[in-house]
Design brief:
Elements lengths: L16 E9 L21 E7 L4 E8 L10 H6 L5 E5 L6 H9 L3 E5 L7 E11 L3 E9 L8 E9 L9 E6 L7 H9 L2 H13 L10 H28 L2 H5 L3 H18 L2 H7 L4 H13 L31 H4 L4
Parallel strand pairs: 1-4, 4-5
Antiparallel strand pairs: 1-2, 2-3, 5-9, 6-7, 7-8, 8-9
Length: 338
């Protein structure tokens, strides 16, 4: 659909498809199931590892883990099975597992993964200063993944950060097997885009009801989350139609919350007013026809109605005098109504 609309994916690395991998632990559920009613601990309905196409901004794979205690790394073999040559897997340090890195390399794909503290490896040669990136000073050095003779040698990109991370780290190390034609600065910048998947997860939680505390069965809870991934992708198709018919800056200023609220408010009435047969007549049966319809609708939308609300500077809290005589006050007296 995106291609048919003339949507051109932004190439993070020309010639490569960049895929972010990250997991989401489903929040604890209510104890509605019979087996949970006498349990003291919080019931976890599972977790899910999702693959996010950074260039198309859609989720294209979901790996379900029904066991809430399972490690995300148990999905590594399934992730490798779905990878194609020239794909670039971008992930955080809990995916920095030597067998996983080796399998990605053997599949003729590439990785940009943050080095985990448990993976020491063997540093080779001297660290070279490459220059500055948008977040700090970039260095590069070769690293052998282990002391074994046949161990893979990768590039270790280090960024000395201008500002510490939220965890307090002042530098990060990223491992990659991308060829030298991809500069260390580009590798560092590509890794930064991993946060876009976390942003997408936040949109799921805030606007698409991806989790409900009343849904405690693992199969139902993970199915609900997968449906929200599908809804997110459908919304991205709508955004592609908007990009094709409106100025890019105007579309980027749209609030996902306002779009969700509009769809939620109008859908129920449309489902009541429009019959199944009428829907069949309204919706084109070909991709070309559907694209034409979406573009036609997109042209009529006033994007000003859906802009993000930009919060002003936070005001300092005023000093509040304590009422020693009582723990409460009369609002009517303060307003001069009595």
């Amino acid at each position: 659909m995106q291609d048919a609309m003339g949507f051109t994916p932004w190439e993070l690395l020309p010639g490569y498809r960049c895929l972010s991998i990250d997991g989401n632990v489903l929040a604890k559920s209510d104890k509605r199931l019979k087996d949970l009613r006498d349990v003291k601990g919080a019931p976890l309905p599972g977790k899910l590892v999702a693959r996010f196409d950074l260039q198309r901004q859609v989720f294209d794979r979901a790996y379900v883990l029904l066991d809430g205690h399972a490690q995300e790394s148990t999905c590594c073999d399934r992730i490798v099975d779905d990878i194609q040559p020239n794909d670039v897997v971008i992930a955080d340090r809990h995916y920095c597992i030597v067998p996983f890195l080796n399998k990605l390399a053997q599949s003729k794909s590439f990785f940009v993964i943050r080095q985990h503290g448990r993976l020491k490896g063997v540093l080779l040669g001297k660290r070279k200063r490459i220059g500055r990136s948008s977040t700090g000073v970039v260095y590069e050095q070769a690293l052998k993944l282990s002391a074994a003779e046949d161990a893979m040698v990768v590039r270790r990109i280090t960024v000395i950060l201008d500002s510490p991370t939220r965890d307090g780290d002042e530098e990060i190390h990223v491992l990659t097997n991308l060829p030298a034609t991809v500069s260390a600065k580009d590798v560092a910048e590509v890794y930064r885009h991993r946060w876009e998947e976390e942003t997408a997860f936040n949109i799921l939680q805030m606007t698409l009801t991806c989790e409900k505390s009343g849904v405690g069965h693992p199969k139902a809870a993970t199915f609900l989350f997968c449906m929200s991934l599908l809804a997110f992708n459908l919304r991205q198709t709508i955004f592609a139609a908007l990009f094709a018919t409106h100025d890019e800056s105007e579309v980027e200023a749209i609030s996902h919350f306002h779009v969700s609220k509009n769809v939620s408010d109008k859908t129920e009435g449309m489902l009541i007013a429009i019959t199944e047969d009428e829907w069949a007549e309204l919706i084109p049966t070909t991709i070309k026809g559907l694209v034409a319809m979406l573009k036609k609708i997109a042209r009529t939308i006033d994007l000003k109605e859906y802009r993000k609300s930009v919060r002003g500077p936070k005001k300092k809290k005023p000093h509040r005098s304590r009422n020693v005589a009582s723990s409460h006050v009369s609002t009517a007296k303060l307003l001069g109504l009595t």
